[in-house]
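Recall that a protein's primary structure is simply its ordered list of amino acids. Everything else, from secondary elements to tertiary packing, is in principle encoded there. The following example makes that idea concrete.
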Amino acid sequence: MTSQRYRSHAEAETRAIAARLAAGLAPGAVVLLSGDLGAGKTAFVRGLAEGLGIEPGEVTSPTFTLVHEYRGGRLPLVHVDLYRLDSADLDEIGMDAELAAAGVVAVEWAERLSPKVRGAVEISLIDTGGDGRAITVSGPSRT
């Protein structure tokens, strides 16, 4: 597993980091986002959308519906938010499995996910004060 560390000083920088990541994602990719409330998880998902060619302004936190689906880009984006759940299994939350396999799945509050998804890209966001964020991107080694 490889890790990259980034510093972001504004939401636009956080989105740009995510957009660069999205450019290399293939169908079926899963991105697991962890961080405290307000750490920038939804901003990161907006960047993923932008990198996939989806209008980032359409992306909102799916806290009350658990799953939002966005289409129209290079790949569809399935945005999952597990904030309201103590624990969840991706197969049991009402996500369109065919769409997920054809697109990218981004899961906020991934620490509540059980079981963990093998081969997923893991994102840790830490609020460092103001608009600052420390972002760690970990994923399978690429050869």
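The CA atoms of residues 67 and 95 lie 7 Å apart. The chain has a mean pLDDT of 88.
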